[in-house]
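Lay summary. Proteins are chains of building blocks that fold into shapes, and those shapes determine what they do. In this project we predict the shape from the chain. Here is one chain we studied, written as its sequence of building blocks.
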Amino acid sequence: MGHGFERFAGGKLIEFAAPGAGTDAYQGTFPISINSGGEIAGSYVDANNVMYGFVRASGGKFTTFAVPGQGTDPGQGVVVNNNNPNGAVAGWYLDAIRAARLRARSGRHLHDVRCSRCG
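And here is the predicted shape, written in a compact code that computers can read:
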């Protein structure tokens, strides 16, 4: 099971799990990136083995998301690769034919993914 953590420069360690993350083997929380504002982005795998994206704010609040068109069968869903200081998240997703892509370049989105705090 995957567990997320953040280690601060002074050595303080905070562990976390994305809401909805599964607790069996190959499930859980998988952070991939942290931006200069302390927001952590990554993916989590739920109890049905489907992947979703998350952003964890520096204060600990989570925003989770799915991408329109993502697959909902085991092994499908969202894989987050990076986040930037402006709150944008980039990654890709697997649909039923495992061929779709998500690009987070302004004006060139295949799908416009927005979270509730992104305006």
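What the prediction tells us: Strands lie at 4-7, 13-16, 28-34, 40-45, 51-56, 62-65, 77-83, 89-94.
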